[in-house]
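Question thread 4412

I'm putting together a teaching handout and wanted feedback from people who do this every day. The idea is simple: show students a protein as raw sequence, then show them the structure tokens that encode its fold, then repeat with a second protein so they can compare. Below is the first pair exactly as I plan to print it.
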Amino acid sequence: MSIRSTTTLLSRATRIKTKLQSSLSATVIELDDVSYQHAGHAAMKESSEQETHFNLKIVSEKFEGVNLVKRHRMVYEVLDDELKSGLHALSIVAKTPKEITPEVK
């Protein structure tokens, strides 16, 4: 079985999580498929794609010192092939571990 065939068998959500984990060393990845909320939209009526819209919460030390726009660009860069092959929309919350863990004083 070729690599492409194996990739096709994995769900888009699984591929997204795997790519983000390996590229950004994420400590938290929460990915919600919200494609069902967009099933009736004009752009989706003509599509046979099932996993097209996701909400993502990701936590990575690689975001340290990086502004929000650049964090989103980092995620989009990792998922470029998914965006070119049917991923239509991705809502992103990207934080560092320090931003989710309150400091103890």
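The second pair follows. I'd like the answer to focus on this one:
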Amino acid sequence: MRANEKQQPRPAPFDPEHLYTSRPFVLRDPAQKRTIADSPARTIEDKAADDGTEPEKLIVCRQCRNVITRPEERIEIQGAHQHTFANPQGIVFEIGCFGFAQGCGFVGPLTDEFTWFKGYSWRVAVCGACITHLGWLFHSPGGDSFCGLILDRLRQPQ
């Protein structure tokens, strides 16, 4: 590395100690995926059977069909629901903003490095069932928060 080059921070390795969800996780074996303890993943069929919600009116994880949020949770941040951003590695994400995503877990501490929304810190959001990266939780010092979810990793009602 040259003397005048700034070293780019490396992403923190996945640390199961910093995985936060609304439901507890059990790690059966470090080589296996995590599973939800005492509360199985909620697929669209489960949710529909429990409360009469029509399955096509829920937003689910594309990978495992766990219920992530509802269309009513769509919100506008900085004048729009949908945003396109690139991370420092140049990977482009199209995200939608949601006020609440009960099907997500959140990984790692809050950081304000490379934030896409001025005044907000972020942490990674994952599916609470299959741990697929779904986006980010954005949190302001004033206590406001929202989820920016990667749209092509979700199945949404038409």
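Top answer:
Good format. For the second protein you could add a caption like this: The two ends are 50 Å apart (CA to CA). The chain has one domain: 18-155.
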